[in-house]
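Here we describe the complex-level prediction in full. Unlike the single-chain runs in Section 2.1, the two entities below were treated as one system.
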Amino acid sequence: MPADKTTSMAEAIGRIDRGSTVAAGLALEHAIPSAAGHELIRQGVEDLTLVGPISDVLFDQFVAADLVSQVRAAWVGNVSAGSGYNYRRAVEGGEIDVENHSNFSIALSLHAAELGVPYLPTRSLLGSDIAAEPHLRVTEDPFEGERVVQVPAIAPDWTFVHVQRASPAGDAHLWGNTGVTYEGVRAADRVVVTAEEVVDESVITSDPSRTRITREQVDAVVEVPFGAHPSPLAGRYHRDNDFYLEYAESTRDPDDAAAWLDEWVYGVDDRAAYMEKIDRDLSVEEPTVAAEVTYGQ
Amino acid sequence: MASEGVGGDHEYTARELMVSAAAREISDGDVAFVGMRLPLIAFQVAVSTHAPNATSVFESGVVRGDAAEGFIHTMCDLPNLNRAVSTTRMLDVMGRLARGDIDVGFLGGAEIDRYGNLNTTRVHAGDREIRLPGSGGACDIACMADRTVVLMAHEPRRFVERVEYVTSPGHGDGGDWREREGLPGGGPSALVTTKASFGFEDGELYVKSCHPGVSLDEVREDFPWDLRAKSDLTGDAGGAVETTPEPTAEELDLIRTFDPDGFWTR
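The structure predicted for the assembly as a whole is:
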């Protein structure tokens, strides 16, 4: 029997040290691990470096809670409403250091780390001011002499992933688009998998082609229904767009932003208590059930 | 005028006109890299009308060959994942872009300059610096798609001689700049605003057509440089500027089907 890694959210997040580099929101607007993120805020783990392609509002909430020293990301904001006001204020006030990326350069950074190489080249970013920033290098490729941008590896200390189902050992099925989730998992030193449902290992092994996160990469498994709200999760629940719009309105002003955190993060014990406050039906009414897949024997 | 919600034969908003103009930039058989907001609707209109063989790819890892059933706020909303051709990873999609397999990509921006360079990173309002969300996938699309189409609200503050930060390279300082930089894609081929449609000649922006009810002078006033018009390029100076075709009744029906509450288009 493989080790059972299931634990509580509080215990899993309690393993994360101050000063860690944390990657999250790797499937873009889909499957954002906000339940894990909110516990990180409640535990007040400070001096974080955040890594991710777009993050939607999760990074903005970490910034509001004053946990962030550096952001290495392609886009930080609110996809439904535009700006992430806490992030904006913090950057404009010089409170956090930003390393500007594109989505592809973040993908290459994590991919380089998962491959164990120090950097990967691309012809994206050439001629942009992103390429002129000190974390990147414009060089010549040694074979043909063409100009390329060298993108350094980024290996997060921790990657947070939210999935539809995982075994107690940490093998996970995630479906729907996955962005840079798998690169982020394999690039990381340690991984927290939060799952809508913890299932018997036989469920995972019944469909191994859907398994892209495997046990040896995973530190902790936490069952947390609606763990990605307000982002959508394929087959489970829709994006809660009104929540994003209300978040934008509630965070334009810094005092209101503090009140938002009090109400939605500090003031609730866990995700179940948080979801009690959501008065909208986000369920998938008519699930599309995949055609049966058969394997061996 | 279109931005007031009144057209010729039928009423439409300026954004609905932009969506129809953007949809016409997608040719049948194109592989389109679809960004956020209006392009989400534009692809659905194109594939439902003149471009049934177009394919859309999204940086989140979605590949679709048809319109989503149900409104989508973002590329990751479940209707866009439901019955997609593939829901995969970013590197699969960005790999196609990097290899040169994307025909057309869509971009937005807070600022655009004379040569189509775009800024979505930081701008100034007077002395105050304003931080914007950043590139997302925009820089990658700008660098590597065969051609790009830029959609922006027509506001004078957005048109600048030189963008403060080049988030997404256009034609640099014109001419063969992209070639010299080693950029694989062709760069911006069109800009559509709420008042006019523009092309690029030798890397520099020019007015291709004004939207119904908008004059060329009115468009030029909003630019801090001497903006060229199509007639300047053809040597037909003083010739009448073309009028952007209005959205058809079919296009408007589709736009309102895909965006029933007008979240993006009203």
